[in-house]
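User: Can you predict the 3D structure of Ribonuclease G? Sequence below.
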Amino acid sequence: MGITTELLVNVTPSETRVALIENGILQEIHVEREAKRGIVGNIYKGKVSRVLPGMQAAFIDIGLDKAAFLHASDIVPHTECVAAGEKKHFKVADISQLVRQGQDITVQVVKDPMGTKGARLTTDITLPSRYLVFMPGSSHVGVSQRIECEEERSRLKGITEAQLDELGGYIIRTAADGVGDKEIEQDIAYLKRLWSKVLQRKRSNPSASMLYQDPSLAFRIIRDFVGSPMDKIRVDSRLAYTELCEFTESYVPELVSALELYTGERPIFEMYDVENESQRALERKVTLKSGGYLIIDQTEAMTTIDINTGAFVGHRNLEDTIFNTNVESTQAIARQLRLRNLGGIIIIDFIDMQSAEHRRRVMECLETALSHDRAKTNTHDFSALGLVEMTRKRTRESLEHVLCSDCPTCDGRGSVKTVETVCYEIFREVTRVNRAYDADQFNVYASVAVAEYIEKEESHSIAELELFMGKQVKIKAEPLYLQEQFDVVMM
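Assistant: Sure. Here are the predicted C-alpha cells for Ribonuclease G:
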C-alpha cells in the first residue's frame, strides 16, 4: 500500500504554517513569520539613480524607500583583460564603463536593507529549484563539488545538458545526488517557465518595479514537491488558495488537481492533531509505544539523541528487549529529525548491544527510516564507543529556534541554581559587602522560595552570621524575583 501525502496550509496575516502529513501522521512542520521575511532573492527592474566612480558603485532605484547599492564587482560581466608582458590578468572595470545614470538594469537582492543602508544588489541573477540553480544567459552546466562520484556527476550533467537552450545554464545542487532523470527534467521545465514569466514582466513593467519575489513559504513548499506524489493540498485561506491556484497552473500544473480550499468549522491544524504534535516536538523526551523513550538535546555544535528502555522489559531476555527498543527508536528518530528540522552533526547513543548482527540490523532500520527524508543525510556505522554519528543537511532553522528563545530565568542553560546554592551565595555576598563597606544593617531581598528556605532551614546560619559581624541581617521575600535573583542592601 502506498503512502498518502497531504499538505495542510494555515495562513494568517502575520504567519504561515505548513504541515506535511504522511498516512495521517505529522512528519514536517514549517513556519514563516511575515515580519521576518526579507527581500533577498527578489529580482527588480531598477533604474540607475547615481554613479559614484570614487566608490566603484552605483545607487539603483528599485522602488523601495532607500536606493539600493550595486558595486562594480557585482556587475556581470565586470572584468576586463589587462596584458602585462607575457601574462594576462583580469581587473574590475571602472563603474562608469559598466552603468550610466538613468539606465534601466535588471538586478537581484543579495543582502536585505539594514539600518540606514539600502539593499545590496547583483546583476548575476540566479533562480533556485529543488535540484538546480538556473543562470540566465549562461550556456554552462556545473555540478556541486559535494557530489563526489564521477559517474553520478556525468549522469546528471548529461541529463541537464540535453535540456540546454538559449535561456540559460544550470548548476546541479548537492540535493540532486541520486535523483532520477524525470525529477531533474521537471525542475528544468519549472525554471524555464519561471524565467519566461520574469522576461515577460521585464518587457511590460515600468522601471523601479519587482519582476520576481522569492516565494513565500506555501509556494516554496509546493515548488519543492514538483514531481512528488501529493494527494491533497488543503488551504484555509481563500486568498492564499486563489494565489496558489494561479501559481500551480503556471509553474506546477501537475499539482493543480490536488489543491483544495478548506472550509471546515474546526481549525485546519486540529486535523491529525498537528497543534499538539508540534508542541510535543519542543519537548526533550519522546516516548515510544513500547515504554522506552528518547532524550533529544539540541546544542550549538550538535544534537544528541539518547535511547532508553524505560518501562519496557520485553517477553524473553534483556538482549531482545534492548534490540527491539533500538529498532523501534530508529523510526522515531527519523521522524523527529524531520519534525524538529534538526541539521548538522547528530550523535545517536543506542542502548549497548552485544550482538554484531543486532547492530547491523539496527543500522539497516535507521537508513531505511531516513530514506524518506527530503534533506540529505549521511550515517556512519557504530563507533568504538557504541555511538552512531550522522549528518543531516541544514535547510532552515530548527523548529525550536523558530518558535522559542532562551529562558530568561536560566539564560538558556536548561537548569537553575537550587535554593540552597542561592542561599549560600547570599551569605558570601553579605560577608563580602560587610568587609568592603561600613553598614549598620543588611536587608536581603530574595525570591519567595529562597527567603522561606533561609528562614526555615538556615535560621541558625543567619544567627551565626549576625553574631560574627555584630550586625543585623533581615531577609525579605520579593515575589517578582526569579530564583537566582537577590540583592544585598546596606542600611
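Residues 181-204 form the longest helix (24 residues). The first strand starts at residue 5 and ends at 11.
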